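hey m, so remember when u said the tokens were messed up on ur end? i reran from scratch. heres the input so u can diff it against urs
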Amino acid sequence: MLIRRLANSLGTSTILILLASTLSAQTLATGDARKLIPEPQYPMVCTALQAQFSSTQRATPPASDDTTRLASALSSCSGSGKAVLLLASGSNDAFYSGKLSLNGEALIVARGVTLFGNNTYGSSGELISVSGNNPSIFGPGVIDGRGDLISGTPRLINSKNAVGLTVYNVTLRHAAKMHLYVEGGSNFTALRVHIETPANTKNTDGIDIDSLTNATVAFSSIEDGDDGVAIKTNSGPASNITIRDNRFYGTHGISIGSQTMRGVTNVLFEDNMLFGTDKFGNVSTDNNGINIKSDYDCGGLVKQVTYRQTHLTGIKHLLIFNTSYGSCSGTKGIPVYQDIVVDGVYARDSQSGAYSEFEGYNAANPLELYLAHVYLDVNNQQSSQYANVGLDDSTITPAGTGVTAFPFNLHHDE
């Protein structure tokens, strides 16, 4: 309302100058306070187990499986920081298990070995539950939830209030729901993680970062049937997060939300590439690129988010800032997006009907967005409203009810 009154009294050109001078002091996100994360070192081995089954049994796992001996080995190493190492033995290359728990120890799945979820863990909530200080999961082997075969929708790996969780150089396949869900705690690292699940599966997020501070996801390849990465606040605020140098195939985008009610701050997305089709040839079922989504049913403040150097190929929903997402459970609150900087987006071969969306909640709570060096091959938009958008050398100009675009020059803090 203030902007409209100023526009009426001062004129449109004057108000654009005022907006450019007052809103162009962006605070760029710095992400994870730990900055550069060193390449993780494999831990010492506490105990080693040899496979007694074959991956050829994936469709019909053995009734008497590895659950007991795996659980016993992990328990004996609990809190030590040392690892239970899973090894092949001749032609035996597989372990089959129900729910397992890590509490401050490591699990290493060796090259050529697969840890499969059995037929019964679907009612347990997850295959691997993680807690404690400095737990870790290492490859280069595979963890396969068999989500295409089991009943129920358990998560593959579920971390709760862990401090210093590291997931490194491991392949995650066929989760029945989320592949790697990390809620609470701090100092989470996922490096060189490979997620290989088709785009036409439901609710199979790649990596969810929920209610924690200091997190990095880097150098990973993610294909799944839902969000590639999602940042949420179900039990507390989320802050100091870096998502960099990743490749996403057939996902629902690099996402914040839908639960933002406890506040998301200081998130840096950098040097990520997104493709609308997975490696199996399936097109994403909700083909998003950059995606902030929330709703009054679970809304809150999202502030100081920077997207730097993002490449989009074959995407339909290019830049999505949505405050009326719907189907959102949490604590009621207005979704407010402030200090959002998009610096360098390159879209090509966009899917037919491609568009962007710039939607603030209302005139009192507009979207505060800065677009610099945004080069889209399709500049269509829909549902844009209540947004103040700075433009610096970009092909798209947001327009709609309550939308104001103004020139600015992006500044860099570093």
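this time it looks ok to me. Residues 14-33+169-407 form a domain with the Pectate Lyase C-like fold (CATH 2.160.20.10). if urs says something different then somethings off w ur setup not the seq
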